[in-house]
Amino acid sequence: MDLDEIRPYRIETSQAELDDLNNRLALTRWPDEIPGSGWNYGAPLSFVKEMVEYWRTSFDWRKQEASLNEYPQYTTTIDGANLHFLHIKSPEPNALPLMLIHGWPGSPVEFLDLIGPLTDPTSYGGDAADAFHLVIPSIPGFGLSGPTTEAGWTSSRAARAFADLMHRLGYERYAVQGGDMGAMIGPELGRIAAPHVVGVHVNAATMGFVPFGQVEEAVFATLTDAEKTRIARLGNFMQERFGFNMIQSTRPQTLAYGLHDSPAGLLAWTCELFYGFGDYPEAVDRDRFLTNLMLYWLTGTANSSARMYYEGAHDPAAWAPKDPSPTPVGVAVFQQSDVAIRHFAEQTNHIVHWSEFDRGTHFAAIDASDLMIRDIRAFVRSVQ
Description:
Distance between the termini: 38 Å
Strand content: 5-15%
Largest sheet: 9 strands, mixed
Structural class: alpha/beta
Shape: globular
Number of strands: 9
């Protein structure tokens, strides 16, 4: 097999896989719960039960599978790993290539509402000058890329693989957008492929964009009220909501037995991020959430995706001081969940664009797609 080969791909789920899923959902062994505890101890029993019942009896995977298969999809092998990606070309011949990078526990499903407006802006009341050719990969070890089979898949290694992918596709000049883990991979891609990356746009940014540890009083005094609120939100997150990260950074294999065997367990483990740990339980459409979840369940990638946390936590290079990046960076801060603060982001990033919005959550490409589209366009115009 030619290792540089790009292979067309379609999602094809056997009925046996769906029957097995249905049986597992029906046979879920439910835990107890302290009455009235809400989301304080984690995903509440009533919420998870309702989602599981909807998944088992009402969710139409065949409809979602057919919808996903309408987009051109491919796989290729890079650095020994299978890499899945959507590649949607714009009808505008002068469109700029743009890579969209998801995070955990996300997938290309996050970006479905962006595809039409970004590739064909004139059909959505926009300007042809804002058109993009989109490349939307599944991070190695995540979803349709399938499990990775060796150690060492850090965000930096994923960035190198994505740089190779864009070169393989013939794109020598392109922009990047990423959220969550994509906001770690994207800026790294901007560093290692600086001559080719015109700019990196991020949301849900943490590593390299927030303080870790106590903020000096003199610095804190210079922050805006909104930034001080983000500092408090970050502190609360680290104290009350960081458990998933700590476990995946230290014992992902132990966790994997539950997530790989129990669809209800996988749902409960991942739903907190999508629903803001109960702060925004209606933020994400159930069908969109479950479509994303199916990509993890059907591919058995709960373990390999969690392993990237372990690799990052144990990678000395990830924690070493970084030189300032030469690549222009734009930051979108969605006030319902984001914690990026410009003072800290500017220490290692060449910030040229900063936007703050009064709505939008961790998955802003889903629940605030209009704002995301507008901000990507504005950023890329500023760095073209």
